[in-house]
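Support request, please re-run this one:
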Amino acid sequence: MANSRVAIVTGGAHGIGQGIVSEFVRSGSAVVIVDIDNEGGRTLESSIRAAGGRALFVQTNVSVEDEIREAIDCTIRVFGRIDVLCSNAGVEHYRRAEQYTLDDWNTIINTNLCGAFLCAKHAHQHLRESRGCIVFTASVQAFANEKHISAYVASKAGLLGLTRSMALDFASDGIRVNAVCPGAIQTGMLGATVPDGTSVELAIESISQSIPLGRIGQPEDIAKAIHFLASPDASYITGATLVVDGGLLSKLAL
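Re-run finished. Output below.
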């Protein structure tokens, strides 16, 4: 049975974001797909509508405040409310720390951290009206990380602080704020970690062997965790960080 909830998913056209979109559509929610990729976003919007779901794509660069405002305003014009903000959009570039340019740093921080802050800031008044919730997509890399990824790590660690702080600020408004930390997930972003000359299939097999549960994660694994945190079943959870990594952080490498 369809419900009346409206969820915004940033970075919703691909990877984990597309998994989140699919999970909310499956449960009957209307979904606003916010992404910089016009073709991918429109294709996903069309496929959801063709299957009888409710979807709206708004092309948005989440590092641009005016574009975020427009995405929020468009959501209200079309659906009249916002119940869930899934702030998922993110980018990463692998470099040694001293090799990052300021432009590299700003692109990553402005997308991953500032973009999340601005989306939450501008959705706040509508979430207050619906007594809704926010779920940020952070990363296990906020706790333990690879080499050559310092800017990304800084952005994701910052998201955990933002989660705690916003949870306190927004509690009196009836808005819950939580974060999910994915481990190794099979998405297009994973390709950036594969060394030149190595097949993606072999890389996935190698990564899977290092994960206690014996497999690499899928976008739906993260989507289901986010959907839970956005559900009434999580009504007493705020300021929390849920790690979804197949046991990766629990493993001591020797």
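The beta strands are 6-10, 30-35, 55-59, 84-87, 133-137, 176-182, 241-244. The mean pLDDT is 95.
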